[in-house]
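Q: Protein A?
A:
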Amino acid sequence: MMADELPTNCRTPIIAEYDGTTNPLEHLSCFENAVLLHKYTDGIKYRVFITTFARAAQQCRKLRKTELSLFAIRQKDNELLKEYLQMFNTTELEVSFVTQEVKASALSQGLLDGDFFKSLAKKPVSKFYTLLALAAKYINMENA
């Protein structure tokens, strides 16, 4: 794969960098759509794709924290949901090989007893990215 020569007109597609805080499948889909017209070989796609990762996502091989670190994060009194999620996501980027279910469980267990927590108590969510999408709705309500 690395033997494929980059064409002289090869450019990185213009898509948002992947920083690890959003759905990786959406990033991959955006990349695939962006390079579709270029007819790159798989080797060139690989070499170009890795340039679309933000610095934090490129350093995913460094094992700094464990999944237990996620369970230690708690939403503080008077801390907005958005601020709690930012802290959680920052730590989550430093933890390797954690399932969506574990991330969702850790995030849920760290919440204060507010509207978002109560909605999860009534209807639990086991997928992390689904939980983030639902949290975004509550963040919008906080900002209103």
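Q: Protein B?
A:
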Amino acid sequence: MPRRASLVMFLGFAVALVFVTGISAGAAQEGGVKAKEAEVASAQDRLMEIRLETSSAQAAYNNALYEMNQLTGQIAQATEDLDAAKKRLARAEDELEERASQVYKSGNVAFMDVLVGVDNFSEFATRLDLWVRLLGEERAKVEAVEDAKDELAARKRDLVDQRTQRVDAVDRAISQKERAEEAEREAEAYLGSLNAELREALQAKQNRQAEAALAAAEEFKAQKNTKPAPAPQPVPAPAEPTPAPDEPAPVPEEPTRVPDESAPVPAEPAPVPDKPAPAPAEPKRAPDEPAPVPEEPAPVPEIQVTEVKQVPVEQPDLQDEQAAADRAAAAEAAARRAERLAEQRAAERQAAREAAEQAAAEQAAAERAAAREARQDAKAEAERQAELAAQRAAERQAAQEAAEREAELAAQRAAAERAAAQQAADEREAAMLAAQRRAEHQEERQAAQEAAEREAAAAAEAAASAQAAEEDASASAAAAEEAQAAQEAAEQQEAEASASASAAAQEETTANKPPEEETTGSASASASASASASASASAAPVGGGGASGSGSSVIAEGQQYLGTPYVLGGTESCVPYEMMDCSCFTMTVYSAFGIALPDSPGGQMGYGSPVSGAPMAGDLLFWSEDGSGYITHVGIAMGDGTAIHASTYTGNVTQGTPIDSIPGYAGARRLL
């Protein structure tokens, strides 16, 4: 008994030790797996954060690159504008330098032209003001171009600084992107290692559980197939077999609780079948101890048999079968739980793989979408850049055309200024020639006047001589008739000689007289000739009938008045060689040909016949400068598409002015 009790205690201690060890190992394994799962979840969260940082870095890189490209385009445009401004500045400076250099040298628009060739202070002030305005405009143009150049240079510097900042931002974005990508690779590698370790730990745990469940199931099946045989001899005393079932009874109760308490570890009930094994062996040892029992009389076996029949001999077998059935059920339940756990783990792994594949597919789709959007953005940006380039090219073309037009206009203005200067020089030369001719005419008139005075003195002397002769004749009245007849004959001869001398003097004066003196009706002309000329002029028809002359003679007559100052007014301001307006000039010229015209451009429009073709030399030209149809200006055609007239623009009588350069041309009239 003491040995059996100690054996039972030892077996119970061993079972408890194995049970506690299994629970601790299972708990440790489960704790390690949970720690790995938590670490994997943390790594996944960190990987998601790193991916977000990578996306943010990529977006920052794209924005910085886009802004840098924009600034590069703006810098290129600013560089082109700056180059164009520099070219314009160089041209303007050249023009200003050329204009200023003409101040100190002779030429058509030199400073000396402002001083020389003017007839009055008003013309000098006008020319000086024009010259100062030209220089001011050139200087203003140069200053404007310089300001534009400085502004473009400052803008280019600002754009270059901004581009430098954008380049730094791009470099920072690239480094940030590289760091984020490196962190993402490290996180993915770390997560892959954690997933591998976790999968290995889970696989090992499932393998151990499956092996334990299979071992327990096989052991329970083997124990169920090998039941303990009943005691062959019911001879032993009833007191000994009775406690045997009572002692091992608690032993099977503990294994029934073991599967319930340690459900995750079903391998622990394996040692339980070894515990009740000594219980059926005890009846075998019973004959050894009560050795004298067979020597007792017959009644003892009958009592033993009666007692054995009364004792539930089969009860230990039923308990063992029940315990075995419970253990088998527990093992089957553990095996089913293990299978379900394995299936659950497999399903979880499958779900995890599917989730990973789905996440990878979503990531790939997102990357493809991002790449597609990036390509679309790049394409749109390229199209926009192309449009901007085309627009800038069109603007540059328009600016170039405008510059060409401006250069052409400047060339035209310069040509017009040179032509005007040349015309002014020609007019000054013509004025000088006219002044010389006026001086010559004045000298000729003075000589004619002196000759007339001498002729008058000679006539007076002849008259005095005749009077003296008459006085002598009357004093000698008492003389004979012969002397009186001789005196009368002498007087008649003297009268004839005086008449012939007077006629010779008149012819000599007429031969030495210039043509303009004949047309202007000077004081030396006879009164009868003037009266006849006036009568013929007043009697001439409107169309010019009765007048003599040609277009070239009209032009020659008009050129005598070149350089005469222009003064607007009526007949009181119409003084040849001193002051004239346009109608005074034409009226004076045509009066030399016996045609009397009114001192009004509109009134002169009613004379002569209209010209259908191109005007010929000597034709009157008319303009309505304000476009109202009212004739405001008149001149004389020179036959080559130009006119000679008293110009308000030049301020004097000028020639060679293109007919089309005066606005409002209204037609021509022919008088000769």
